[in-house]
Structures are given as structure tokens and as C-alpha cells.
Write a structure and sequence with these properties.
This protein has 421 residues and is an alpha/beta fold. It has 10 helices and 16 strands. α1 packs antiparallel against α2 and α9 packs antiparallel against α10.
């Protein structure tokens, strides 16, 4: 680990490079190196995070995005909105009025976002708790680093959505209660811990303004956020959808008054990626560059807990890969790794096949990370070239075995594998 001592309000800067290890050598034929690790600023690289998911009635409406990825986008009927009046009889209510696709609701966007967050963070340093709220709050799982259990609980919340759709309940949104509940668990965990200090974060997802307690919902939310901020619990609001974004002045006021933060998410479906990639510290900049070639890393991702990964293009010889971190208070940390890359042409069909296999595995790993299209195209071109080389070597080997091809040039055929147009 490389760390810088504190000199400002942000505390220390922590940088750990896990991949590549010092003095590593890249496989011949793959001119890219994967880098990974974590970076954070603050009192500690360890985190306790509570995610608060809004399950008030309005989150049953369609988000406007294809959240479940089934190719259909759920729509909300105009007939549905009168049912949000508590005085209106519900004799004619049908769940499909809220969303024609139950997997595309605002609630499901939050559930998917929480799941994606759990999948993306480094649970060797992070503990996560989850609560749901409407008029009151319910803790679904206490702080834990058990990824399987967290995902199971989040999936259980999703399974409960079909019951909630059938039984529409208008209860209101009590952010103050959710803030107090999550904050209490975070503070209790800090009081009980005997290990290194842990930063505390409360992520508040909601599609509207606080409406409970009656007549003082906003004031109660502001007061609770202020108390938590004073006790070192960083509150981060995520207002979802057009209505919440129109209410952005409220969240701006809360930030100014309490020191909380907010991230507006106009398109509800974007919360799935935005939550996972929202920085939970005060990092101002982070760059990875191959200083030997002057080329920056590609497909750099920095997740909420500071975990990062990227792909660095290599040149023949020694590549000096530099890491540069700037904290919001101006502190800087620099580190480097040297990666050796010696390209070579495969001499046998077996070597060419192995290279093609390595490129294919590398490409599949990047596809799973949703990296940039251009890099995937480069990888695909490199693999096609490798397959062509493999095919040529196979023909040459076959010709030598049959005693043909001596004294004349060898005519090769085009490979028979499928090309993508």
C-alpha cells in the first residue's frame, strides 16, 4: 500500500495497487495489462454503508426505462394517478395501471442499484446494511460483509414487490425516520468496533420530497441529516426522476445547511450504474497513464468504495505505469508499476491457439465489465488476426507432414470461423 499522511480536512490518502504486481511480465501476444486496486481519501479506507430504499407508493409507477432488460419498457396509465389520493375508493384499481411491466418500476430501479452496488464493492474493506422505508423504516439486514447474504436479502425485497403492487397503500415518505434508523445502526457499529476506524455513509434513494411526519417532513429530514453529519455520518441523497430533480433546490439547501451531498438522477434507470460509481470520499482526481508511451489507461472505472480497474495499452519493453491521486484538499499521492512486454510471433499452431484463447478470455472479462466499445473492437481485431495466424500455421504444418509445399509458395485459405459484421 502507498499512503500519504494527513495535512488537511480530508485526512489521509490511501492507494493500494493489487494488479499488476511489482516487476510483472505481460503475456506475449496481449498488449494490454489489467490494473486494479483501491484508492480513498479520509480517515480510513474502511467503510460502513447503509443503503435506504424508498418503497412508498409512488415507486410502484413505471421508471421510463427497461430496468429488467426484457426489451419492453413499462408505462404508467393516466388512470393510475387518482389512486394516489387517500380518499379515493380503489374498486377499479389494477396493478398494470401503475406499470405495464412490473420489472420496470422506480422501486425495481433502486433494488437493481443496491444489488449492483453490493456486487461492485470490495467487501474486505466494506460492510453494508440495507433498509427500506415509506412512512416508517424497516432494517432488512444489518452491517455485514457477506455478499451472498446481502444479495439474497435484496432479492427478497424484489420478490415482495408483487404483493405490494396488488395491495396499493398510500403511506407517504418519511426520510427523517429512515435517516435516523440507518444512522443509529452506523453509530452503534462504530461504538462497538475494536478494529481500525471506519468511515460511515448513508445512501438515501427516493423519488420525491419527504411528506411525513405530516406538515413537517422536510424540516424533520433536514434536522436529522444535520445531527448525523455532526456525528461524522456522511449523508448522500439520490433524488430519482423528473419530479425529484425539479425539487433539487430542497436537496441543495440540505447540502448547504448540513454538509450532506446529493446526486440528481433525472433518468431513473441510470441509478443502477450511478450508485455503484459514486465516489463516497473526497477524491478530486485519479489518473492512470503509461508514462513510457504517454497513453492513458482505457476503460477506467472507480467504484463507490474507491475500488478501481482499468486496462493499460503496452509497448514493447518496460512500461512505467503511473498512478496519480489528488484529494479535494490538494493532497497528492503518486505510485508506479513497471510491466515488461516482449511481443513475439507464434511459431506453432498450438502457440497461436493458446494466444487466441488468452485474447478471447481477456475480451470476455472486459465484456462482463461493460467497458468501452472501441477497446472491445481492438481486442476483437487482435483475436481475429491471431486466428488467421493459427489457421496459416495449421496449413503449413499439414503441408510439411504431407511432404508438399517445397520450392513453391503456399496458398492459404481464409479461416472458417464466423466473423461479426
Amino acid at each position: 500500500m502507498v499512503s500519504a499522511s494527513a495535512s488537511g480536512s480530508a485526512g489521509e490518502v490511501f492507494l493500494e495497487i493489487r494488479e499488476p504486481p511489482p516487476g510483472s511480465e505481460q503475456e506475449a501476444g496481449i498488449e494490454w495489462a489489467e490494473v486494479a486496486g483501491y484508492v480513498s481519501t479520509g480517515e480510513s479506507p474502511y467503510l460502513d454503508v447503509f443503503i435506504a430504499i424508498d418503497l412508498s407508493a409512488s415507486t410502484l409507477v413505471a421508471s421510463g426505462d427497461d430496468i429488467d432488460g426484457d426489451g419492453r419498457v413499462g408505462r404508467t396509465s393516466l388512470l393510475a394517478y387518482p389512486f394516489f389520493s387517500v380518499d379515493l375508493a380503489r374498486d377499479h384499481y389494477r396493478p398494470a395501471m401503475l406499470s405495464t411491466d412490473p420489472g420496470d418500476t422506480v422501486a425495481w430501479a433502486q433494488i437493481h442499484a443496491a444489488r449492483r452496488f453490493v456486487e461492485s464493492v470490495d467487501l474486505s474493506r466494506v460492510r453494508i446494511g440495507v433498509l427500506t422505508f415509506a412512512a416508517s423504516s424497516r432494517v432488512r439486514i444489518h452491517l455485514t460483509s457477506d455478499r451472498e447474504e446481502l444479495i439474497r436479502v435484496i432479492d427478497d425485497i424484489g420478490r415482495g414487490e408483487s404483493r405490494r403492487r396488488r395491495n396499493l397503500e398510500i403511506t407517504g415518505t418519511n426520510m427523517a425516520h429512515a435517516l435516523a434508523t440507518g444512522g443509529a445502526y452506523l453509530l452503534a457499529a462504530r461504538a462497538e468496533q475494536d478494529g481500525p476506524p471506519r468511515r460511515m455513509e448513508l445512501l438515501m434513494l427516493s423519488d420525491g420530497l419527504p411528506s411525513r411526519p405530516f406538515s413537517r417532513g422536510p424540516e424533520a429530514a433536514v434536522a436529522t441529516a444535520q445531527v448525523l453529519q455532526e456525528r461524522d455520518v456522511q449523508v448522500h441523497f439520490f433524488p430519482l426522476g423528473s419530479v425529484a430533480v425539479r425539487n433539487a433546490p430542497f436537496f441543495e439547501f440540505v447540502d448547504d445547511f448540513t454538509g450532506s451531498r446529493h446526486t440528481k438522477v433525472g433518468r431513473v434507470g441510470e441509478i443502477v450504474e450511478r450508485l455503484a460509481e459514486t465516489h463516497l470520499d473526497r477524491m478530486a482526481a485519479f489518473d492512470i497513464v503509461n508514462r513510457t508511451s504517454g497513453v492513458p489507461a482505457r476503460a477506467l472505472r472507480v467504484f463507490a468504495d474507491g475500488s478501481f480497474d482499468a486496462v493499460v495499452p503496452l509497448v514493447p519493453g518496460e512500461n512505467e505505469v503511473s498512478f496519480h491521486v489528488v484529494a479535494s484538499d490538494g493532497q497528492v499521492v503518486d505510485a508506479e508499476r513497471v510491466v515488461s512486454y516482449v511481443p513475439s510471433e507464434p511459431r506453432t499452431a498450438a502457440e497461436a491457439a493458446r494466444r487466441s484463447s488468452l485474447l478471447e478470455a481477456f475480451e470476455q472479462r472486459l465484456r462482463g465489465r461493460r467497458t468501452e466499445t472501441e477497446l472491445l473492437m481492438d481486442l476483437h481485431a487482435a483475436r481475429e488476426l491471431s486466428l488467421e495466424t493459427q489457421h496459416r500455421l495449421e496449413i503449413e504444418a499439414d503441408a510439411r507432414e504431407r511432404g508438399r509445399g517445397r520450392g513453391r509458395s503456399l496458398e492459404t485459405k481464409k479461416p472458417t470461423y464466423l466473423r461479426s459484421e
